[in-house]
UniProtKB/TrEMBL annotation, chains A, B:
InterPro entries: ATPase_NBD, ROK, ROK_cs, WH-like_DNA-bd_sf, WH_DNA-bd_sf. This is ROK family transcriptional regulator. Belongs to the ROK (NagC/XylR) family. It comes from Microbacterium allomyrinae. Pfam families: ROK. Residues 1-24 are annotated as: Disordered. Residues 1-10 have a biased composition (Polar residues). Signal peptide: none annotated. It comes from the Bacteria.
Amino acid sequence: MSTSDAQSGPSILESPSKPVAHGRAFAPGRTLRQGGKVLPEHARGHNRSLVLQTLFHQGAMSRADLARETGLTRVTMSDLVAELIADGFVAEMGVREASGPGKPAMLIDLDRDGHRIVGIDLSGNDSLIGAVLTLDGSIVARREVPLPVAADLVSTMVDLARALVADSHAPVLGIGVGTPGVVDDRGVILTAPNFGWAGFDLEGALRGALGLPVLVANDANAAVLAEYTFGGAADDVLLVKVGRGVGSGLLASGQPMRGSRFAAGEIGHVTVGTDGGPQCACGKVGCLEAWLSVPALTSRLAAASAPADREGILRDAGERLGIALAPVVGALDVSEIVLSGPPELLSGPLAEEALATLRARTLAQPHEGVRVRMTQQGDDIVLRGAAVMVLSGQLGVS
Amino acid sequence: MSTSDAQSGPSILESPSKPVAHGRAFAPGRTLRQGGKVLPEHARGHNRSLVLQTLFHQGAMSRADLARETGLTRVTMSDLVAELIADGFVAEMGVREASGPGKPAMLIDLDRDGHRIVGIDLSGNDSLIGAVLTLDGSIVARREVPLPVAADLVSTMVDLARALVADSHAPVLGIGVGTPGVVDDRGVILTAPNFGWAGFDLEGALRGALGLPVLVANDANAAVLAEYTFGGAADDVLLVKVGRGVGSGLLASGQPMRGSRFAAGEIGHVTVGTDGGPQCACGKVGCLEAWLSVPALTSRLAAASAPADREGILRDAGERLGIALAPVVGALDVSEIVLSGPPELLSGPLAEEALATLRARTLAQPHEGVRVRMTQQGDDIVLRGAAVMVLSGQLGVS
């Protein structure tokens, strides 16, 4: 197999009209402090992203509609659309029935089948999961391989990614990877104890091996992007990912929170309450993870005999989640907590108790409207989030 | 008295080269979703702010240095500087000694005395405090009036602002106000129980009466801006303001956090711990405010006889602050907690215990580097933050 499919298509990275990578370039505070000027090519990249973003969210429309929606002139729009058609990102979809006099309008849309994205999820318990996704985030092919020993992890990922690129049958826009651990904004794994990585440039290693754009992020940070782009999440949302560990991804005003050391969202080892709690693997007592992780919950549930005991265990875990999150809801005024993980554990009593606890422990007004709900993205949430990273990084669409 | 001083100067709001109001305009996620295009005048406003921002932070330099720092061409820079000199925001400061061959360079700087800013602080216990500030945030005049009954508050503020404008002896760039309560991004007070305000357009009322740009924000949100601009705060910082109540202001990646209902920072009525606590005025038990507010601390200290008891009271309050903030440090990976309020209460045992508790209740790596410190801005922090709001809103400087 080879990556020839991908390389025969127009490469975004080599294109003279390379779009601004909004996922990273738009950190206005830092940009200003570092002295970012606005050049004509920035405006062009921004406007190109704006067209793609509009089509991504609103679907097919005429060039005239696009001009109206974006505020750009018809001439500018005509040039931009021609360029995007030549690059294979936009296609003409046929004419719309004319509703009045005049020529019927040609509809333009994102060419959702013109490119593919490869997503890889390293957060599984015992397997690596990969998928080929359309620009819509639909999964069109999927592969799963057993988790190898740590020393073979990168070569196994490279093989998996190559197989998925071969499955793609269209140019591949890029490869997104969601992984446990703390990941910096260059895709360097600062720490991922599960895999023994510390300061490892996973993004660079994969890019070098695959010859395609690669974007690597923490799995929960990827997941919250999927929830925002495909799950209708609010602009201020915290996604709690419950698996072997407990992590979270956070958006404020629709922007991903990174943190001062790229460790935003690391709530698994925050101590909950002032009355002790279960022993945590980290050595402390009463960490959120010790209350809420899948292994912790399943072992406590297995020891419970009566259904009422089982419900009590889930309610206790939900209460602890609410106790841990109340200060975060207060400080950030998030409007929504989204839970990702086994629904048989998280939905029902656990989510109900988390909400009741959040309401009891924050100021009624303005926080009484806060919601707690399960994601509808299921087990594909990290894969779809990885696709959003590529859409955002390569096309400026989010 | 009149506002003629201010109105005789160049009004930013009427200038054809009005800069982008970075404090509000730059919310990239929302901007994209709402379809913001980049126009030439945006680039011009951005570059104008960039020049002001560079001079604000780095001080006097030549046009050639400015061009190099900002990446703009010398021709563009020359035009921009001419425009900014004409508007009274930039001045020539004299030539620098030539270090080599060639013409000695004329130094350019922000005209720090060319304009004044008026700041008003409504967070005092029993007075309204106002000041005239330079563009540097230095206070050059100050007035204080007793807090009137609620019905007279706006007219008292207007009188105070007019007196300060008269004190200014230079064009007034704008008026910044820091107030307790939840304030939206248009300066409407959504709720401020102390003053009986709910849905009150304070910004509009003051602008109408004063004929000058007015910017209103929550007092703790103003304070964190002062700490960021003048106090050397990190990009990811939480400022806790302790007075009659307890509030906070939060920056992530140097950007102010607003929250889904503009209530970010409202941590005073978050319940702390799971072992009860003092009764709070809100009706709940164990709110952070019931542990930490100045009235709560002073009344408990007054009842203590031995110095050891007093230290114990302060340590307990610091521990509660650490318990409340640990999940926030985990979720946001802030690197610094700054305390604002009476140093005789907050510095020493209280701050020490807060730090020790934070460290004990979060993941050692990456959070062991988190700091807790007192602000050096003293009681002027809200006034200086109000000035930053005006600098940011009117000049794009932060």
